[in-house]
Amino acid sequence: MRKKRIDTVHAEKKCAGTIIKEYLIITLGALLIALEVHIFEIPNGFTIGGVSGIGIALGKLIGFGTANIIALLNILLLIIGFIFLGRSCGIRTIFCSLVYSVFLKLFDIIMPIEKPLTDEPLLELCCVIILTAIGSGLVFHYEATSGGTDIIAMILKKYTPLDVGKALLCVDFLVSISAFLVFNVKIGLISVVGVFVRGFLIDVVVENFNSCKYFTIITEKPEEIKKFVLEDLSRGATLLRAEGAYTGSEKTIMYTVCRRFEARRLQKTVHEIDPSAFTIITTSSEIIGSGFRHI
After folding, report:
1. Which residue, 110, 115, 256, 272, could crosslink 237 as a Cys pair with Cβ 3.0–4.6 Å?
2. Last residue of a domain, one of 209, 242, 276
3. What parts of the chain have a pLDDT lower than 70?
């Protein structure tokens, strides 16, 4: 009974630690997105989609503060997100969009920027794409959004075969067209190119976060390797008895999966325990199940 209580406490601590870690990473993602919007998007007039793109275009037209427009549009889309994406994603999205709006307003106060940092718009566009892709990738990985049109993209991902990057591409392409009307052809073309590159780059970032390593280990020392997998990596494994076709000796085939950062440890340990082990390592784009991603 006592052991069961201790296990429950450990599980609760682990769960709390995981939640805190997820929200810290979501905060980092929101910080990167707010940073690129304030430093690069607004001064250059880039409208590469999102509520920030709409806010930049409307801010130019009506002269109302861009940060205020973004905050108002986010509130409207947050309500839509709660309806279609559910409570869990809705709470994370509210947190992320609030943090994003606070960062944006804070940057506007402590370091106002009136003009582009350089006279190279393509260079600044590259900074926008990189920061947005990393920031959005961090946020999307934990089933959250930064608000705005990201919510619409997540809804499309949920109800259509589109992955998140391509869904965002479809939504933001329409927003980027406004740059032709509000600014000029040069800014419009740059915005459209930025939308396409960012959409595909976000998919790359998200897939890299989800990718895992799948091990097929053929060994004569399965017990020691199994102990390492179960106790040190806290992963599961499947064992099959087999016979070597050439030698006729009895062997064990072990199947296990782990995160990318754990793969190197497992590979090294298998070699130390059984130098003659035959190890096949493949990359999986996604693992669904206990200890990995849940539907």
Report:
1. 256
2. 209
3. 1-15, 45-67, 70, 85-89, 146-148, 164-165, 174-175, 178-184, 210, 285-295
Q: Is pTM beyond 0.70 here?
A: no
Domain boundary among 175, 209, 243: 209
| Domain containing residue 220: CATH number | 3.30.70.120
Q: What is the DSSP string of the chain?
A: -HHHHHHHHHHHHHHHHHHHHHHHHHHHHHHHHHHHIIIIIHHHT---SHHHHHHHHHHHHH---HHHHHHHHHHHHHHHHHHHH-HHHHHHHHHHHHHHHHHHHHHHHHS---S-SSS-HHHHHHHHHHHHHHHHHHHHHTT---STHHHHHHHHHHHSS--HHHHHHHHHHHHHTHHHHHS-HHHHHHHHHHHHHHHHHHHHHHHHHH-EEEEEEEES-HHHHHHIIIIIS----EEEEEE-TTT--EEEEEEEEEEHHHHHHHHHHHHHH-TT-EEEEEEES--BSTTSB--
Parent domain of 36: 2-209
Residue 293 lies in a domain: no
> For residue 34, what pLDDT is reported?
86
Q: 31 with 145, same domain?
A: yes
